[in-house]
């Protein structure tokens, strides 16, 4: 009974990503990472704001648990921030906790790299060839809405090892936003630039290399950032398979053991790792877009 | 503004390509069957090597389409375009293009934009770079080489566009309303600069515009196009002496040529307006 309830809850969680993934294909390419970082006083100010906002959230959380708030939503069984922090501090002193994190990060790295390479490649091909586009698009439309958890049984049956099925599920989550954003970027290539370089003697390949790809880069970068976020929540679904390691497994295991504070520790760690890796993606793609920054 | 006097004429690698353009019985239509739309009616034009020709017409008359056929972007439905007896079937570096605006690669610096053509022609980095510098100096923008296009004003961007087109030593320079987006003051300066550059290089120039003053000031010949579907209805020879300056706008020859063009184009514009309303 309890297990059934839990499964349902996890299923819901894993379905949540969908709206985000769906919103992926049409981001305003100009709204991408550039304005995120401004050095100096402004930046210090925004860091202060982030700190203030998180502290306020933690304070509200603390109050809600301290008075056992029960008004439609029920906080009586929710661990207090202090208990979560204590549990977290306890965990970071164990080796196994770091193994969980390390294993998850390795899985993200492998799946995300594969999704990046393949996603950009497929997106570019679809953007430049009508036939390829017509051929591949139906698969993307049909497969994209399938939530990561729904893949679990089939992934286990299809792939030789647990590890490979987890990586497959994570990879799939990151793939679609990257493909669709790349495609969107390629479609936005201004025709006048293609014509201009053609009359400068550019070959088909040179047009691709010097016009199509750079024109698509802002949109690709946005897709990479979204893909990173999606790959984290797909990972959680994938790690339900794993009987041993991974921060998703850690969280899932805490569900099964009804260890409330560890559930929250796992959730928060996933949240922060996801945020951190998305920020890393933005930082890596930023130098490629420096011409955009100078534009404004 | 343009320091042309200091400029040493760069080596002219290929003297064979003189830039003689022949448009023979060309018509251009888009779409097929019932949806077919005739953009340019059967037209023949001969442009001598080194000539400066303006194509003048009301908006939407197909003058840009005709130029796109010379550039090789659009295939004529009938007839053919040849340059120095070689058939045009695709865009190529022998025909330098200058567009109305925003045609520089925004992710390349000004210098990289100008060096792009020579690089595509197979020149090494150093040679392409020195060509780029030569042409940036020609248009007075050598100092701005490491800027990105968006950091430059519209007029400066168009000068870079001209430098980029010339860096391939084209035999023909095709300009599609290149100064149309500039303010009046900048436009006058750009027109004088263009004439200076043209005098140095002697390339054939085909210049599309809807501005009568611009056409008369720049051209040896003004070809006036009819309202859509376009065809050449007048071939006006402009007998003003060169080098020209803006002061010539007061001479009787200028006024006469301008008035003639203006009357012709006015009649055409009215026709276009009426046909759109029926």
Automatic annotation (TrEMBL), chain A:
Biased composition (Polar residues): 1-12
UniProt subcellular location: Cell membrane
Membrane topology, from the record: Multi-pass membrane protein
Chain residue ranges for the region called Disordered: 1-31
Transmembrane helix among keywords: yes
Membrane spanning stretches: 44-64, 108-127, 139-159, 165-186, 207-233, 263-284
Chief location of this protein within or outside the cell: membrane
Record-level GO cellular component terms: plasma membrane
GO annotation (BP), single: alkanesulfonate transmembrane transport
Highest taxon of the lineage: Bacteria
Keywords recorded for this protein, A-Z: Cell membrane, Membrane, Transmembrane, Transmembrane helix, Transport
Keyword Cell membrane: yes
Pfam family membership, one: BPD_transp_1
Low complexity compositional bias, start-end: 13-31
Domain (ABC transmembrane type-1) ranges: 101-285
InterPro entries linked to this entry: MetI-like, MetI-like_sf
Family: Belongs to the binding-protein-dependent transport system permease family.
Role according to the record: Probably part of an ABC transporter complex. Probably responsible for the translocation of the substrate across the membrane.
UniProt protein name: ABC transporter permease
Source organism: Actibacterium mucosum KCTC 23349
